Amino acid sequence: MISRHEKNPVLTVEDFSVDYMVENPVHAVRDVSFSLGRGEILGLAGESGCGKSTLAYGITRLLKPPAVVTSGSVVFHSREGYAIDIGALEGDDLRAFRWSRISIVFQGAMNSLNPVINIRAQLEDIFTTHRPEIGKKERRELCGDLLERVGVDRSRLRSFPHELSGGMRQRVMIAMAMALDPQVMIMDEPTTALDVVVQREILREITRLREELGFAVIFITHDLPLLLEISDRIAVMRNGEIVELGEAADLYLHPKHDYTKQLLSSFPSLTGARGDFVRTGIEKGPRT
Amino acid sequence: MTTIEARNLVKRYSVRGARGQKLLALNDVSFTLEAGKTVALVGQSGSGKSTLAKILLQLERPTSGQVLLDGAPAASRGRALRDYRSAVQMVFQDPFASLNPFHSIEHHLARPLLIHHRARSGAQVQAGVRRLLERVGLEPAMLTRRPHELSGGERQRVAIARALAPSPRVLIADEPVSMLDVSIRLDVLNLLSQLQREENLAILYITHDLATARHFSDEILVMLKGEIVERGPADDVILNPKHDYTRLLMEAAPNPERRLSGR
Amino acid sequence: MTSVLAQDPATAALAGKTTGTRQLLPSMTPKLAAGLIVAAAIILFGVLGPFLVQDPTAISNVALSGPTGAHLLGTTQTGQDVLAQLAFATRGSLIIGAVVGALAIVLSAFFGIVGSYAGGWIDESFSLFTNVVLVIPGLPLVIIISSYIPQKSLLLVAGVLAITSWAGGARVLRAITLSLRSRDYVAASKVAGERTWRIVLVEIFPNLVPILASQLVFAIIFAILGEAGLSFLGLGASGSLTWGTMLFYAQNGLALRLGAWWWFIPPGLLIALFGAALSLINFSIDEVVNPKLRDQTRSVRKRWSLTKPQLRPLDKEDVR
User: Fold this and answer.
1) Could B250 and A270 be called an inter-chain contact, meaning their C-beta atoms sit closer than 8 Å?
2) Looking at the complex, does the CB of residue A91 fall below 8 Å from at least one CB of chain C?
3) Is the pTM of this model over 0.90?
4) Which of C294, C305, C318 to mutate to test the interface with A (most CBs of A within 10 A)?
5) What pLDDT digit, counting tens, does each position of C221-239 carry?
6) What is B2-99+169-252's CATH number?
7) Strands (E), chain A
8) ipTM value for the complex
9) Quick check: is A126 in a domain?
10) Is A272 within a domain?
11) Mutate to test the interface with C, among A19, A57, A68 (most CBs of C within 10 A)
């Protein structure tokens, strides 16, 4: 049986490597390969320094020196049927590609809003840059629609970032990432700084929007239980490599790699028997 | 046996520039900590848990209410305050920010030993700091290093060692593992449990993570907007929440078993 | 991501170092080496020179003559040896620099650090005082003082310069101390039972040393340039020999008009060189304090294993 991501991939990453070419070069990402199915939620789990953010930036051509892509390819398969080699895009093509096909919600994004410009101006900025042909009135409508789509009231268009709560700001960032109807959204720790209740609301929005609009999501976080709840498949990264990649349920019930088992055993079970971890029956040996 | 008791604590902050408006951070909070038991204080940001920690540590004064140590009101100045400090210690959330980047690990551990007269001579200090490092599972070679040379987990262990130096009876752990890498969190929490057993400490474990709160504490207090809205034995609160807010927290917390354990 | 103020100066300084010893010192770069060598040479000249040259006040008949064997830098209008004067002037200017630097730092540290750590009304009053002193114009103040005391000693001029230069540094120190005061490690010291004065001296102060070093160097530059300016206007320590008073006498002796370049160029050149050398040293100290300056300078980038085309995007972003 061919799985969904192989039959209908929207993104194919092959042997992708990124090095930080400082005096003693650091291999941040090593020969990473995976494919992302259309409309799939792929969780990317790993601890700090494993290279998950570097991978995300590498895929979207956002890396700055001393980080350099040393090998591999990233191919985007559009809805219309043609394939785009992201690594080969330059100049205007790259600008047109960015944000309209793949968008990214950065870590700490809710603090990335310009504090002296109101929300509407920041949303409109996207349209004036990428869709200059849209008229002023229609643009304003679109911005209002965007906000309502992420569950923020249209009247908030006039607000400034500091007048919104952390959760609302994050929704605005997600709205901005969705503005041009991308087919892939990369989210780097989008809920880490938020309260558990707000986090749950944001995750609901993301899954609901995914149902509605059909985009694929690469969800990067260290919070494995969260990924187990919302992802279709999960990739576990360590030291720049993907050590395990599989369906969420498989990973949870039958983890293969030792590191996956170690990660799973780091999360105590919330409602299971007292003293159990998320994955029962895992031996906890001495660790540093 | 009650070691430390918070009685009807209220804390009001005046908000700058808001014409006499006051922020009510704590609203009539009362609870007790007993030797050998861990109490978890669960709440989201803005619930008042940090304010409560600061008041228990005498970093701030309550607007009204009392803190009692062994039945007597906590002292607020002089030698009596120093004695209080030797009994009540804290492990901070950020392992990097809670250690002074300029000083060596030895300095961090030696100072509390000297201040509270747990060691008087140079030799005693040397022996004392080595013992402290041993108890938290670190090598004596760390003594000459500086915080930036240690990993996050090692730094937090140093912070725990520093808190243990005055031989306290109460330990306030404010989100001690939330800034650490996932795979070492349980090790640090297990270390705290082990030290609690060895020293018969009363621990207040402040966290927003319900799972570890349940796993490592005997009793859970749920805080919302400066009030304790639910309290009880850990399993009871988690498996049988009574207050709406507790139910909301339980429903919101990531729980893969909800989705996956059926298979 | 973090601003300079948000990050501990000491953290920034130590972040790049892997050894256990105290490596708060900036790393040796050509810039720093040049600055140190030039500054050291001038200081050496100022310290030892006066012992090796003739009497600067000895009048002779050889007036206003260019460099010769007997007078390596020529003579002044009254036949005094310029080289000798230069040596003593260097010493005089360096003394002013040192005294003003030390005084200004002590005042900045006191009003900036102590006040803001204490908090409350002490902080408010110290801050108010600092702001008032900051706003008082220095030059008019000196002119007023001059009119009361026509014969000023070197130390009096140094005193006046110090009084008008500490306030800016105090503001910076206050801002940084306020931010450090709310750090966790300060709270941890309090919880450990540390006394207030020890916290200020042992926990907070060491983290301020890089900033203070930078302020000290800057104060010295300001002092020397300020004294030169004052003396040139005739408001300086007219009885003593400094670079500024040399320029004053040269101006009065119509050196420029008469083309006696050997009289005014040497002191002017030394002022410029010493100022430049101290500035280079200050840039290196800045690199210690602000890691962004250290990790991304051109000299660091050269050491990366990247080709020129790969580095071009970064060059384009550099502020021109």
Assistant:
1) yes
2) no
3) no
4) C305
5) 989 988 888 888 888 887 7
6) 3.40.50.300
7) 9-20, 26-37, 41-45, 67-77, 83-85, 102-105, 184-188, 216-221, 233-238, 241-247
8) 0.89
9) yes
10) no
11) A68
